Fold this sequence. Notes:
By secondary structure, the protein is an all-alpha fold. The protein is about 60% helix and about 0% strand. It contains twelve helices and no strands. The longest helix has 16 residues, at about 190-205.
Amino acid sequence: xxxxxxxxxxxxxxxxAHLARVCPVWAKVLPQLGKLPLxxxxxxFEAIASAIVGQQISIAAAxxxxxxMQDAGLLTEAAIRAASDDDLRVxxxxxxxxxxxxxxxxxGLDWSALRDMDDDDAIARLVALPGIGIWTAEIYLKFxxxxxxxxxxxxxxxxxxxxxMYDLPARPTPAxxxxxxxxxxxxxxxxxxxxxxxxxxxxxxxxTL
Length: 209
């Protein structure tokens, strides 16, 4: 079966129709969410750098750091390799994130090769780089490569949104959320967008970048 990609808003619409068809909870919730965002960006170093910046901090903080990096021209592998520790510190990067970005910039990854890999192989290639765990790799696949069936089950906002939506007794573990999400295939990345939108409504704040 050809790999499904999310490239346009029509793909989001198709995914939503599938979710509503396979699950009465989604059928009830989706009309409340409005238009789900496409959230696509170009693949490559800049996209993974953005994901690294956003690790374990608020969206507002990540946006401020990213703006300083943009102003300083620190968005390419060459720029990161050439930057001093002080340059990266002034941009707002913690010591671990400085180390991660330098390691990734020096790894010489063929970013275009990821486009032709299946999801598991692309994730494995990414998590071999410093500072990239499963969550960061899945965010990259979802938004930079447009993979339609990547969920990111370890995301706490997705877990909490699923708990509320499905009236679960506790926040689901990644394994429980993956099991719950099986009927959502091959559009789990659309479901993730829906869960983040639901989280924003339920909690009054954003749950991801």
